[in-house]
Amino acid sequence: MRTITTLEGNSQRLDGGAMFGNAPKALWSRWVETDDQNRIALSCRAMLVQEEGRNILVETGIGAFFAPNLKSRYGVVEDRHVLLDSLTEIGLTDADIDVVVLTHLHFDHAGGLLSAWQEGQPAQLLFPNATFVTGQRHWQRARRPHPRDQASFIPELLSLLENSGRLELVEDGKKSKALGPDWRLRFSDGHTPGLMIPIIDMPDGPVVFPGDLIPGAPWVHLPITMGYDRFPETLIEEKEALLDSLIAVNGRLVFTHDPDVAMAYVSRDADNGRYTVSNPQPRVKGLAN
């Protein structure tokens, strides 16, 4: 049997305008609240899949690896490594994770692989028994980033992953050896080249973790993209194809950055064609259907 549980990691507050791209504040302020610095609240949510005696973690959030000055710059709220606390709450530690799936290697999705910041101490790679799985093309991007997204990657993390001997890079259209044949993977280029999207088949329909292709419920609306997206027009086309495929098979999305909605179904208005979410869940624990 396969079960799914959503896990909270460290949260952030980031500029609302950056998160909603070219959409005006008059539009996106209907969906989210801002603080006095125009920042919105964001989760960095992970997903735990438990199956056949193994624990598979999809993403690790931003973690607590930043030094205090950078922690403030990027709006990280908590000092402690919240994802480790979330694992403890369900009786696990990072050493119990067998596979970590990384949709991409931006610091707000992969920073949780690192230990919490300590003055004068280098960051340590957590999850000592896990195989780390990410897309081959995205790894190439992370190793040779464009100046526009260079600051989104953590150079020391890339070296730690490579030197661990437990890194698996998956080619587009191929299966992951660590995950096995029952896991399907979809690849996307709109947010960052080679972003890898896991699709987990469940009895009542697939569960998809789209990462930053669709970071939260407001971004289900087709024209809404982030200022951080490398290729917004491509992203919109990829998003539409994914949403249509989910509607056809009663699929669900798990949102990594939505502070209120962890999982939801997708629907489309028959009159205006607009995509929306339905049956939103703030948290998922031990979902088996």
From TrEMBL:
One GO molecular-function entry: metal ion binding
Membrane-spanning segments: none
Gene3D superfamilies: Ribonuclease Z/Hydroxyacylglutathione hydrolase-like
Domain of life: Bacteria
Keyword Metal-binding among record annotations: yes
Metallo-beta-lactamase domain sequence ranges: 43-257
One Pfam family it belongs to: Lactamase_B
Protein name: Glyoxylase, beta-lactamase superfamily II
UniProt organism field: Halopseudomonas aestusnigri
Upper classification of the organism: Bacteria, Pseudomonadati, Pseudomonadota, Gammaproteobacteria, Pseudomonadales
